[in-house]
C-alpha cells in the first residue's frame, strides 16, 4: 500500500518509522511518503493560511497551496483521499478495513480551523474524498488523527501482524464477538502480589475457558459501553448470555426491535 501524507509538521510522523509500522515499511508492505505542505507556498513567509470569509476566529488553510501540493502528489493517479477533521464521518474498524483494501491512500492534514472547502469539492469530483473524525474531541490538527488511522489500517495489511489471526478477535472485528469488548488477560506467574489468575484459565478445559471469556466480555461491555450492549443482536446470544445479562439486570431490547 502507498500512503502519502501532506502536512505542515512532517516531524509528527516519526513514529511511522518504528515498531509495527516501521517493520511493514522495511518489508515493503507499506510505502509511506510524507510531504511538507509549505514547499508549495511561494511567498517569503511560506504562508499556508488566511482569515475566514464571513468572519470568526482562527485561520483557514488556503486553497491554492493545497491545489499545487495535491496536483503534484496525485499526478495522473487516483488515490483515495482522507481529510481528518472533527466534522467528518466516524473512523471505525469497518472503515479501517475498507481503507486497508485500497492500494493508495492520501491524507491531507489541516491545522487551524480547517482547509478551504473548495479543495474537497475540487478533488471530490475526481477522487473518492472522505472527511473523517477519529472521535468526539478536538485535536490541534489532523496529524495525530492520521497516525491513529495509519496504525489501525497498517496492522490489517497482510503480513504486518506476526500472528495472522491476531486481528480476528478484536473487539470491533466482524464475527461472533462483534460489538463485545475483550475481557481481561493474564500470563505467568499464577500468583502475583497475592493476586491469583482465575482458576478456570489454568483448568485446561477449553469449553469452560471460552464460556468464562464470553461472560467477561459481556460484563465489560455492559460496564464500559452500555450503548454497545444495547445494540447487541439478541440472535447472537445463547441461554448462558441471557442468564448472565438477567443477573446483571440488563434489559435486552424486545426481539422485534433488533436491527
Ligand atoms: N482534527 C482535529 N480534531 C480531529 C478529530 N477528532 N478527528 C480527526 N481530525 C481531527
TrEMBL record:
It catalyses: guanosine(37) in tRNA + S-adenosyl-L-methionine = N(1)-methylguanosine(37) in tRNA + S-adenosyl-L-homocysteine + H(+). One of its GO terms (cellular component) is cytosol. It is found in: Cytoplasm. Keywords: Cytoplasm, Methyltransferase, S-adenosyl-L-methionine, Transferase, tRNA processing. Gene3D superfamilies: 3.40.1280.10, tRNA(m1g37)methyltransferase, domain 2 (1.10.1270.20). The keyword Phosphoprotein does not apply. Belongs to the RNA methyltransferase TrmD family. This is tRNA (guanine-N(1)-)-methyltransferase. It comes from Nonomuraea glycinis. The lineage of its organism: Bacteria, Bacillati, Actinomycetota, Actinomycetes, Streptosporangiales.
